Amino acid sequence: MKVLSFQQMPYRNLPSDFAQKHNSVVNTPYNELVKASEMHEYHVNFLDEMMHAARSGFDGLATTEHGQAAYDILPNPNLQMAALAYATQAEKLDVAICNVGRSLGKSKEALRIAEEYAVLDQISGGRLIAGFPVALSFDANQNNGVPPIETRARFAENRALIEKAWSSEEVFAFNGKFNKHPYVNIWPRPAQKRPPVWAPAIGNPNTFKNIIDNDDAFLYLSWFGPKLTGQRIFDRWWDMCEENGRDRNPNRLAFVQCVAVGETDEEAHRLYKPHVEAAFRNGLGSIPIQGLGLPGYMDIKGVEHIVKDPGDFGLVMKMRDIQYQELVDNQACIVGGPETVKEQLVELVKNFRIGNLVLMVQHGSMPHDLTKKNISLLAEKILPDLKGIWEDEGWEHHWWPTGVQS
């Protein structure tokens, strides 16, 4: 199996009462909260931490996109991923470059995403994994001004345009509802014939059907608490794969899991508790729950599913005041010494047939040195026991970039 190092990029020095005072989706007072020197420092630290993971033996580097949000200050992560693509190429570090998301449901420039991804694939020598999420409702509809009812239609059209722009041998015109181009002929095209696509989702059956029809990999997040939601979501995924003629190849599934490793359980809880708690309270916890699903954002089948069974949301409903122990108990973040963390990760991987484990290594206010310690302990003490899982079943990995030689 493949193990990737993943980070969002929060502003790390938010006040302790941030989630109670501010709504990070629309009205966070930037100039009141941000120090220019710290903002510069955090961007540089992010790149250094990602390179540390690449040098330490992770199979790939992953990040994602959010706009106007204090918990993730990467409005276009392709900028950072270009720097990492070049740096890893220069150091001959054979790692995948995985942008979990440029959100197609909010994008008004789909062709630009096609071009940027192609450039990333060229810089990296064919190591790109392309993320195509729909978009979070608050991000697309509030922050980016896309009418909720247009979100999924825009996603579908943007995806179709990008795929055709990558693959067409001829110049073509595209006359869609949201994209109108008399000529489409992007330079460059991707280095790979078609970069593999990983599609983030939270369990909507219609979204699953779209992922399966496109033969993408499904990526799920631990933030909901996999002890509460994992069995229901993953069973639904694998059942739908079988119903639609797809095999149970574990490489079809990627999973983002928050982890924090210390030398011992006691040290890990002491070091990481304030940072993990702050990450969840100031991230999902600072988004009003209505902002996650504005009227019109979700298709009718998805609404019916949630109304009948709202359990897919797991811990999300209480994130603003969530307590550390509840996060740990429900594995929203796995915290402990190497043996504790390894045992829980192996159990998750085997129980749910996870072929791509995307480990989130930095949380909220976690400082630079502690983040690098977390990465080092994961690489030294845990990764060797994870990478061999599934080898005995002999599956091919059709969702891994062809430019990566390992």
In short:
This protein is α/β, with parallel strands linked by helices and 406 residues long.
What does the model show?
Helix 8 (205-214) packs across helix 9 and helix 13 packs across helix 14 (368-386). The mean pLDDT is 91. The protein contains 14 helices and 11 strands. With 406 residues, the chain is an alpha/beta fold. The protein has an 8-stranded parallel β-barrel, surrounded by 7 helices. Helix content is 43%, strand content 13%.
Oligomer: single chain
CATH class division: Alpha Beta
Rg is 20 Å
The name of the CATH superfamily reads Luciferase-like domain
The CATH architecture category equals: Alpha-Beta Barrel
Helical/strand content category: alpha/beta
Shape: globular
- Relative helix content: 40-55%
Largest sheet properties: 8 strands, parallel, barrel
Low-confidence stretches: none
Mean pLDDT rating: 91
Number of strands: 11
End-to-end separation:
12 Å
Quote the CATH topology. Answer: TIM Barrel
Topology:
Layout: E1 2-6, H1 18-21, H2 30-33, H3 36-56, E2 60-63, H4 78-90, E3 96-99, H5 110-124, E4 128-131, H6 137-143, H7 151-167, E5 172-175, E6 180-184, E7 197-200, H8 205-214, E8 217-221, H9 226-243, E9 253-261, H10 265-282, H11 300-308, H12 324-329, E10 333-336, H13 338-352, E11 356-360, H14 368-386
Parallel strand pairs: 1-2, 1-11, 2-3, 3-4, 4-7, 7-8, 8-9, 9-10, 9-11
Antiparallel strand pairs: 5-6
Helix pairs in contact: 3-4, 3-14, 4-5, 5-7, 8-9, 13-14
Which keywords apply here?
alpha/beta; 406 residues; single chain; 8-stranded parallel beta barrel; 43% helix; two-stranded antiparallel ribbon; 13% strand; TIM Barrel
